[in-house]
Amino acid sequence: MSPWIASIHAHQVPIWLLLQITALCAMLTWFFRRTRGEPSGLRLALVLALPGAALGALGLGIVLRLPAFVASGFEPRRLFGMGVMAYGALGGLVGTYAAVVRIRGGAVASALDRLAPALGLLVLFGRTGCLFAGCDFGRVSGMPWAMRYPRGTAAFLEHVEQKLIPASAEYTLPVHPAQAYEAALGLLMAGVGLVVERKKLRPGTVFASVAGTYAAGRFLTDLFRGDSRPMLGPLSMPQWLSITVLACVVLWATGAPRGER
Predict the structure, then answer these.
(1) How far apart are the two ends of the chain, measured CA to CA in Å?
(2) What residues form DSSP beta bridges with 235?
(3) Backbone angles phi, psi at 225, to 5 degrees
(4) Rg of the chain's alpha carbons, rounded to an integer?
């Protein structure tokens, strides 16, 4: 484990919150640069969509944890104790943004295309914050790049609860840096968006490509996760959501007529 990460926790720097704010600022800054000279309605729509991201991040997690909450005898920790969901944040942001654009009479598909590459920055910086905070951590690993987290982090508390380490331990067992894998996926999303954008295909293609990239990548990165997540059968709920998104992208690509929707 990097001594720097231990130092951050020792001084109780709210690195997770700082990097979530950085993620929002980076996305907004790049989007504003990308839409320079275009109708200001797109920028306003994105600003108005920010509360939708927060509501989606909290709301989706609560909905998906309801079965576990009921099964536990209505234990509050099962409903509210596992943080926010990235899929909810992205879905809430995109859905609210698209709704505002439509209400204002804009072209939704083109507007989503303009936003899509910048979504990669949300994933990049957001998951980097999780990497430092020790949340959304990976499963136990013997790989050379595996990380250990100090006491007080979510990873440490869960390893103690799972009886993987004693409560007197200083650090967790080595785990996959699953957050770094997903942060790298954010870079890939931005790159895919820019490449597809240059091809000038029909409206909606850039967004569909970025959404499909995230869905496929998220399905794979979840294979390395070691934290408690809502599950349905052998797959996590984010993996089922990834399958749903990929199916929607395929249906859109094969069934939508040319021209904007």
Answers:
(1) 49
(2) 232
(3) -75, 145
(4) 19
Distance in angstroms (rounded) separating the CA atoms of residues 247 and 89: 20
Separation CA 173–CA 95 (nearest Å): 39
Partnered with residue 163 across adjacent β-strands are none
- Please report the pLDDT score of residue 37 as a whole number: 87
Residue 250, Cβ neighbours under 10 Å: how many? 12
Q: How confident is the model over 148-188, as pLDDT tens digits?
A: 999 989 899 999 999 999 999 999 999 999 999 999 999 99
Phi, psi at 150, each rounded to 5°:
-80, 170
pTM (2 decimals)? Answer: 0.91
Joined tokens for residue 246: 């990929």
1 and 149 Cβ atoms separated by less than 8 Å: yes
- Looking from the CA of 198 toward its CB, the CA atoms found within 13 Å total 5
pLDDT tens digits along 216-240 = 999 999 999 999 888 889 999 999 9
CA distances from 99 to 135, 202, 239 (A): 32, 20, 26
Is 50 exposed, middle or buried (CB count within 10 Å of its CB: 0-12, 13-18, 19+)?
Answer: middle
pLDDT above 70 (res 10): no
How far is the C-alpha of 31 from the C-alpha of 47, rounded, in Å? 11
d(C-alpha 51, C-alpha 89), whole Å: 9
The helices-and-strands tally (H runs, E runs) of the chain is: 10, 2
Q: Flag whether pLDDT at 7 surpasses 80.
A: no
